[in-house]
């Protein structure tokens, strides 16, 4: 029975809050061991150049480190088992060439960051500037100076995915629509930038590396390999992490260099990334180009989709997964939650002289959702239907589950059309239509748009093996320990970057052990105290780590019951563990008493039962191709056709993530994700000029969503527990960010329907809205081009 | 180096600082008051907001030497401050924080929004938070937490 006070399903308030509300959180930049020296990196000002020489002033000796000064550091190299994948070596400090603006060249050390930056400014580098590769569509097959010279071309990987008969669909189609789409390059931009502190612990003969990372255990794997150190001599700690969202789930040159410096020097070293460095060098994301044709019949039934997908992967592959997964995920997710029978996707991941591309909340899914949902609306327009009618016509039905999409994803459960209806209710669709008929007194035009998606979450071994990954994040781990007084510690291999795992994982253990979560501590993020785990990404934490906690807790519960039954002198089948006790037919014994026996008074243990209450378990869901959350998002916008300015009037999410362990936190994740998705839709962009210079460097020119321009976000829930996980949970951390670009673009299209303008590019800036309006008026002959 | 003297959270402190040291770096590096966070160091994100002589200010844009003789209040302070106490509780109850990085600046700004009598409407609260970025929550719960806190201290504005 779920315990509704604090177990699975309770909106328990967070354990994490107290320290942050009093400014007592502990982020990397808050750690200042005595003698710490600050590191600033000298970075490339050029997108593409050969390094002829590097010279530091004589007084900088021993304080400026280039690749030549750290010979034990090997290049980062991603392994991919996908056919034809090319993997360039990436020296953490540039050797003969730089390939993007911001690439690290030297580490400069001083007592303060300001002095370290002064030192970096005193280092002279002689560059031979080369023409950069900027346009992935134009230059994928080759360019004057390829990013990696010996390749000949600029392709990391190309691949095709085909199902059904797309040519037959094209012949049969009564409606055929071709569109180009763009989802521009952006930053994940957690509020805390990256940071690393490294020092040598001589007593333990190890390097200690604190990092703002989502993946401490795999970071250790990489450091050991690249620095040729045994893992036992490296401890990685992720303390409080101020948001990650994907970019902090990758290995970075700075982490390697700081660890190498700690090996060389007799004092701690610290590098705290500033915002400009973050915008320049932390993984960029999105940057998709699409050319897509949809085929449909006269009712709006989609017969086929033919897609060309180009992803701008940047200059190098970020370890461990490289640039390969983004385009593949887009290709597989693009058919969405629909019964599309014929499909062809050709996708290309291209090396350019830009910052390496990495995952950001949703990874390829926001782009895939943007494309298919825009097309659904255009098909509806072409056949004269309401978009949601065409949506419902094509959505996979509950009785078809499990359903294999033409993209190769196995949808497991749910009623997708119900989410469309619920979302339309939350926004009161008829009232919006009525308002549109009335018109706005200020001349603005109101529109409403929807987008539906199913999101693969908590995928395990089968999925990552299919992607050709060399590292397969298929499980999570938990060591659960009852201490001598009956209090509990959960040591988990996962990491929390702010989403509240200390609270929800204790709820899972509370559910299994019948112990108040207030008596349970969760330890994470430290390779010293936790069993191996992969970390937090891919909407996996609650399903994977929660599953591991449930399994470890059950092992302990069984042992508590055995000892308790012995103490109560009754059969083990007659006892149950709840409310802090093991209760039998006559009387009960507290967990604390049992714990005392298990540790301090082993003369009370039954025959054949070992002392200690300590269990380690791992968990992978029963199905490793992923369980699918789904949602429909809806947006209501007002567009000013004179200025192109968009106001978000209303926003709603109707979603189903199965069993919610903590509904309060689930809704927090959804709202946070939605606002990040709104950032993708309307504001956030890192443009590059033809010389390969990024044109944003501060939050004054990189716009992030603020409270003033965000609406309150409505949420409605559907509940279809999946049969494949503990408690029926489905992952949901990323979903909020997936649909906003699609829903908002559809709303803008709806608002501008009388003009016939559509914006198929994010962010949908006022300038792009005005350009779309002008294009539509030119096409209609209303104005000259 | 320049000699400075100021009150921080009610305690008088004196130090010698380089002229280019920001107030934020002074608070964090010299005074170990690390609750004041740096999210951009150019005055946009608001995570480093503190009170200087009772007014909210960006400690990343303020030089420590410019604070000579002034009263500074950081998130570690506010002992006995009724509005801050109510806000902290309300942020907890309404799940108005996730990673906690923006929270100190949010709380100090929110307190000011309430004291200026701007917390009576959602619009007033949202506009009042225009200078504070939160990347995790989507703001809805922050706005609710401030609105509910304001109701508890009707005389504060």
In short:
The complex is a heterodimer of chains A (785) and B (157). Chain A has 19 helices and 29 strands.
Tell me the layout of helices and strands:
The complex is a heterodimer of chains A (785) and B (157).
Chain A: H1 17-21, E1 37-43, E2 49-55, E3 64-65, E4 97-98, E5 104-110, H2 113-121, E6 124-129, H3 136-139, E7 155-163, H4 166-172, E8 175-187, E9 195-201, E10 206-211, H5 216-227, E11 234-237, H6 253-264, E12 269-272, H7 275-281, E13 284-296, E14 302-314, H8 324-333, E15 342-351, H9 365-383, H10 387-394, E16 403-404, E17 410-411, H11 416-427, H12 429-438, E18 445-457, H13 461-466, E19 476-482, E20 488-492, H14 501-513, E21 520-524, H15 541-568, E22 576-578, E23 581-583, E24 588-590, H16 591-599, E25 614-619, E26 627-639, E27 646-656, H17 663-683, E28 713-717, H18 740-751, E29 761-762, H19 766-779
Parallel strand pairs in A: 1-12, 8-29, 10-11, 14-15, 20-21, 27-28
Antiparallel strand pairs in A: 1-5, 2-4, 2-6, 3-5, 7-15, 8-13, 9-10, 9-12, 13-14, 16-17, 18-26, 19-20, 19-25, 22-23, 23-24, 26-27
Chain B: E1 2-8, E2 11-17, H1 23-30, E3 49-52, E4 55-58, E5 71-73, H2 82-93, H3 103-115, H4 122-128, H5 140-152
Helix pairs in contact in B: 2-3, 2-5, 3-5
């Amino acid at each position: 029975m779920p315990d509704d006070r604090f177990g699975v399903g309770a909106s328990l308030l967070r354990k994490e809050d107290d320290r942050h509300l009093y400014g007592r959180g502990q982020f990397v930049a808050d750690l200042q061991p005595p003698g710490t020296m600050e590191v600033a990196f000298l970075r490339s000002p050029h997108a593409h150049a050969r390094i002829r020489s590097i010279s530091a002033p004589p007084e900088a000796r021993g304080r400026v480190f280039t690749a030549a000064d750290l010979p034990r550091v090997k290049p980062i190299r991603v392994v991919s088992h996908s056919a034809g994948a090319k993997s360039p070596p990436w020296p953490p400090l540039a050797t003969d060439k730089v390939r993007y603006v911001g690439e690290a060249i030297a580490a400069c050390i001083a007592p303060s960051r300001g002095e370290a930056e002064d030192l970096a400014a005193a280092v002279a580098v002689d560059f031979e500037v080369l023409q950069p590769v900027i346009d992935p569509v134009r230059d994928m097959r080759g360019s004057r100076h390829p990013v990696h010279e010996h390749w000949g071309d600029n392709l990391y990987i190309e691949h095709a995915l085909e199902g059904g008969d797309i040519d037959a669909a094209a012949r049969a189609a009564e409606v055929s629509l071709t569109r180009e789409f763009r989802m521009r390059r952006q930053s994940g931009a957690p509020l805390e930038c990256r940071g690393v502190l490294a020092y040598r612990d001589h007593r333990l003969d190890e390097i200690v590396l604190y990092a703002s990372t989502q993946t401490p255990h795999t970071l250790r794997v990489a450091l050991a390999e690249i620095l040729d150190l045994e893992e036992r001599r490296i401890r990685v700690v992720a303390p409080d992490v101020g948001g990650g969202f994907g970019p902090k789930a990758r290995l970075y040159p700075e982490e390697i260099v700081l660890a190498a410096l700690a090996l060389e020097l007799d004092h701690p070293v610290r590098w705290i990334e500033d915002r400009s460095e973050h915008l320049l060098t932390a993984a960029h994301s999105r940057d998709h180009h699409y050319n897509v044709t949809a085929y449909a019949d006269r009712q709006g039934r989609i017969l086929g989709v033919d897609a060309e997908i180009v992803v701008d992967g940047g200059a190098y592959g970020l370890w461990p997964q490289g640039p390969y997964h983004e385009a593949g995920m887009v290709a597989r997710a693009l058919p969405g939650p629909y019964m599309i029978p014929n499909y062809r996707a050709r996708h290309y991941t291209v090396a350019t002289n830009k910052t390496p591309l990495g995952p950001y909340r949703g990874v390829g899914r926001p782009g895939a959702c943007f494309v298919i949902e825009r097309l659904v609306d255009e098909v509806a327009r072409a056949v004269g239907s309401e978009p949601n009618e065409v949506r419902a016509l094509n959505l996979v039905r509950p009785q078809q589950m499990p359903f294999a999409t033409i993209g190769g994803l196995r949808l497991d459960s749910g009623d997708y059309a119900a989410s469309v209806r619920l979302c339309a209710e939350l926004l009161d669709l008829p009232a919006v239509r009525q308002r549109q008929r009335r018109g706005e007194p200020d001349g603005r035009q109101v529109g409403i748009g929807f987008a539906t998606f199913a999101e693969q979450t908590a995928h395990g071994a089968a999925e990552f093996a299919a992607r050709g990954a060399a590292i397969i994040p298929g499980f999570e781990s938990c060591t659960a320990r009852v201490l001598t007084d009956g209090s509990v510690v959960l040591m988990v291999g996962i990491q929390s970057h702010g989403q509240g795992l200390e609270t929800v994982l204790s709820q899972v253990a509370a559910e299994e052990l019948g112990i108040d979560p207030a008596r349970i501590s969760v330890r994470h993020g430290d390779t010293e105290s936790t069993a191996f785990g992969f970390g937090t990404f891919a909407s996996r934490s609650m399903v994977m780590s929660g599953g591991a906690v449930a399994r470890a807790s059950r092992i302990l519960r069984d042992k508590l019951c055995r000892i308790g039954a012995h103490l109560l002198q009754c059969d083990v089948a007659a006892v149950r563990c709840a409310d802090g006790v093991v209760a039998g037919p006559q009387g009960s014994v507290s967990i604390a008493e049992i714990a005392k026996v298990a540790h301090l008074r082993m003369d009370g243990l039954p025959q054949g039962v070992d002392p200690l209450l300590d269990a380690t378990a791992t968990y992978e869901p029963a199905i490793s191709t992923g369980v699918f959350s789904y949602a429909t998002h809806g947006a209501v916008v007002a567009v000013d056709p004179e200025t192109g300015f968009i106001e978000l009037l209303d926003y709603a999410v109707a979603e189903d993530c199965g069993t919610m362990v903590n509904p309060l936190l689930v809704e927090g994740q959804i709202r946070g994700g939605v606002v990040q998705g709104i950032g993708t839709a309307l504001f956030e962009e890192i443009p590059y000029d033809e010389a390969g210079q990024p044109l944003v460097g501060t939050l004054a020119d990189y716009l992030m969503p603020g409270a003033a321009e965000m609406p309150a976000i409505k949420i409605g829930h559907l509940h279809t527990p999946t049969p494949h996980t503990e408690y029926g949970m489905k992952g949901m951390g990323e979903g909020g960010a997936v649909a906003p670009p699609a829903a908002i673009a559809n709303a803008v299209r709806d608002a501008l329907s009388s003009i016939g303008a559509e914006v198929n590019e994010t962010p949908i800036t006022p300038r792009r809205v005005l350009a779309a309006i002008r294009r539509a008026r030119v096409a209609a002959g209303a104005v000259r081009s | 180096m320049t000699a400075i003297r100021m009150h921080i959270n009610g305690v008088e402190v004196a130090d010698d600082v380089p002229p280019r040291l920001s107030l934020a770096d002074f608070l964090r590096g010299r005074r170990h008051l690390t609750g004041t966070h740096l999210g951009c160091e150019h005055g946009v994100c608001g995570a480093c907001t503190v009170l200087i002589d009772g007014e909210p200010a960006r400690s990343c844009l303020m030089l420590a030497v410019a604070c000579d003789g002034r009263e500074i209040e950081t998130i570690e302070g506010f002992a006995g401050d009724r509005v801050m106490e109510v806000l902290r509780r309300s942020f907890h109850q309404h799940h108005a924080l996730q990673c906690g990085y923006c929270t100190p600046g949010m709380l100090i700004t929110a307190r000011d929004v309430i004291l200026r009598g701007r917390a009576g409407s959602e619009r007033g609260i949202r506009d009042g938070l225009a200078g504070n970025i939160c990347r995790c929550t989507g703001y809805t719960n922050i706005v609710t937490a401030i609105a509910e806190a304001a109701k508890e201290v009707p005389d504060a504005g």
